[in-house]
Amino acid sequence: MERALWIGTSWKMTKTLDAARRYIRGLADYLARTPLPGVAPFVIPSFTAVAAVGDELPSGTQVLLGVQNAHWEDEGAWTGEVSVPQAADAGARIVEIGHSERREHFGETVETTRLKVAAVLRHGLIPLLCIGESDEVKRAGDTSRFILDQAGGALDGLSDDQLGRVLIAYEPIWAIGDKGRAATVEELRAPFADLGREYGDRTAGLLYGGSVNPDNALDLLGIDQVTGLFVGRAAWELPGFQQLLEIAAAHPKAAR
Ligand code: PGA
User: Fold this and answer.
1) Residue 256 within a domain
2) How far apart are the first and last CA of the chain?
3) Does the beta carbon of 210 lie inside 6 Å of ligand 1?
4) 20 to 30 A Cα–Cα from 33, which one of 48, 83, 138, 151?
5) What GO terms in the biological process aspect are recorded for it (predicted)?
């Protein structure tokens, strides 16, 4: 099946409103000059910037907007949380769920990821479920069981149609952020073979994330089951994101 290559960035906890607007204006100008067929770009700002970023995007843009988290309830006494309908109201189409930083620091569990995936699907948005093992799990040779448990737990009970709207990002914890080290393609073949067997054609995409940059993007997109990249630092400045979009657009996997 031909489908677009997903290239997305989470800005994590960076950018003022001004910086967010400048980035998105630049991205919109760039895309107006440089059509990128076969690529599905997405941008996931901090909550404070979501509506402002949405306002800067021209109507009909190919850029999908996302949020980095959302609660499973639609509304209520949940101080500090944001619901899926609120995220949708601000313009989000994608909801990131279960990033390892949220699992590690904010108590996200397999059960909360399951509740959040269900809430996102209920409101017609796209869940972007992040999974990935620690260095310890990897060294114990337990990666496959661990990531399949994380995915299976979060996606438990979904119909084929619902699963077909889910994006999965495999992001090994040891490869994320400035304390991480970039994974080699060889290290990623087995986890992606496992994920591909279980979810490959049944979900909207299988993305890789963790120290992605313009130097390794081509090799990462070459892994059989990979249909997109989810990027932090290397896309926080617009030129880095543009380079990644161009690499994807030139890739034979980009649907035309
Ligand atoms: P990184 O972050 O690209 O900065 O390693 C990736 C992620 O956390 O999704």
Assistant:
1) no
2) 12
3) yes
4) 48
5) gluconeogenesis; glyceraldehyde-3-phosphate biosynthetic process; glycerol catabolic process; glycolytic process
Q: What is the mean pLDDT of residues 128-132?
A: 99
pLDDT higher than 70, residue 154? yes
Determine the Cα–Cα distance for residues 231 and 151; give it in Å rounded to an integer: 20
Mean pLDDT of 169-180: 96
C-alpha of residue 218 to centroid of ligand 1, in Å: 17
99 is catalytic: yes
Domain count, the chain: 1
157 backbone φψ class: left, alpha, beta (φ>0; ψ -120 to 50):
left
Is residue 43, in this structure, part of any structural domain at all? yes
* Residue 125 to residue 93: CA distance in whole angstroms: 5
Sign, CA dihedral 53-173-181-229, equals negative
Specify the residue for token string 């990002």: 169
- Measured CA distances, 187 to 115, 141, 143 (Å): 31, 12, 11
Can you give the CATH number for the domain in which 37 is found?
3.20.20.70
Closest C-alpha to ligand 1, atom 1: 232
- From ligand 1's centre to the CA of 77, what distance in Å? 32
Asked if the structure places residue 255 within a domain, the reply is no
DSSP calls for 42-94: EEE--HHHHHHHHHHSPTT-SPEEEES--BSSSSSS-TT--BHHHHHHTT--E
DSSP letters spanning 151-189: HHHHTTT--HHHHTT-EEEE--GGGSSTTS-PPPHHHHH
The residue whose C-alpha atom lies closest to atom 2 belonging to ligand 1 is: 232
Q: How confident is the model at residue 1 (pLDDT cuts 50, 70, 90)?
A: very low
